[in-house]
Design a protein that fits this description.
single chain, Alpha-Beta Plaits, 4-stranded antiparallel sheet, 3 helices, 27% helix
């Protein structure tokens, strides 16, 4: 399993437009083979921050999705990017 998680920052006046522009992409990604979850969300504390979370069965599934994702070109510039891919060795319930 792979998890891609982190955040990007943009001009706070453009954050909500960026999130909304990705609504269709998130809906399509959640239907993609191998996708376990995807979310691109506005941070509730930082008005310029957008949180990114993806969980995939395999790296091949990620690459297959990226080849057809057709992400929107919003023209919104990132001020900062802190997103990392994590390969998961094992899982267990948190509680």
């Amino acid at each position: 399993m792979w998890i891609i998680a982190g955040h990007v920052t943009v001009d706070e006046a453009k954050r909500d437009a960026f999130v909304e522009a990705h609504r269709d992409l998130v809906q399509r990604a959640r239907q993609a083979p191998g996708c376990l979850d995807v979310a691109i969300t506005a941070d509730p504390v930082d008005p310029g921050r957008i949180n990114n979370y993806e969980r995939w069965e395999t790296w091949d599934a990620i690459e297959a999705w990226r080849s057809r994702a057709n992400a929107p070109d919003t023209g919104i510039e990132f001020r900062d990017v802190d997103v990392t891919a994590f390969e998961v060795a094992r899982t267990r319930p948190p509680f």
